[in-house]
Amino acid sequence: AAELEYESVLCVKPDVNVYRIPPRTSNRGYRASDWKLDYPDWTGRLRVTSKGKTAYIKLEDKVSGELFAQAPIDQYPGIAVETVTDSSRYFVIRIQDGTGRSAFIGIGFTDRGDAFDFNVSLQDHFKWVKQETEISKESQEADTRPKLDLGFKEGQTIKLNIGNMTTKKGGAAKPRVSGSGGLSLLPPPPGGKTAIPPVPPPSSTAIANHVTPPPMLKSSNVSS
């Protein structure tokens, strides 16, 4: 994964001054007024780059681009970059060479806006690093949590109870709308009685066709 990481440029400032600083004698912060600000030991270009989660402060020659010194930074604020107590334009950085040796030097910007951009570029990078670390941590915690198995086991069944649908209380039934061209009957008024249609009288044809059964003969053997 480290081989696939590429280097991106976070900030470029064409003018930066480098100073040799006296060793710190106490726990108090560095003071730029203790340096020889009018006589910088080196002047060149500053570039802030990042590769993965590590940022780099690179001091380069303005013309050739040759690297003068480099300061890798894995935390900000931290020991690799410190601000001075008496100015916002000067910083103390820890440079390192390929052999692992390190030294502390002072850097300063003539323009206060350049110092602000330098500071913000480091803050934004490590804010991103913090977010990426939190996202990675949450992802790992989610992977270690037991997963909920919602699948049915062999032979397992489920029972559903579906109740009858009830109508709203106090609501009157709505008449059914007839289809196309159909005629619908309205319900009877409340409290009314339905009239029963009269039975039609028998027709003359039905009377003519009616056959009267013959009278039954009384037997003399049957007593009154």
UniProtKB/TrEMBL annotation:
The keyword Transferase does not apply. Residues 186-203 have a biased composition (Pro residues). CDD domains: PHear_NECAP. InterPro entries: NECAP_PHear, PH-like_dom_sf. Residues 166-224 are annotated as: Disordered. Coiled coil: none annotated. GO terms for cellular component: clathrin vesicle coat; plasma membrane. One of its GO terms (biological process) is protein transport. Pfam families: DUF1681 (PF07933). Residues 6-163 form the NECAP PHear domain. Its main location: membrane. It is found in: Cell membrane; Cytoplasmic vesicle, Clathrin-coated vesicle membrane. Belongs to the NECAP family. Involved in endocytosis. This is Adaptin ear-binding coat-associated protein 1. The gene is Necap1_0.
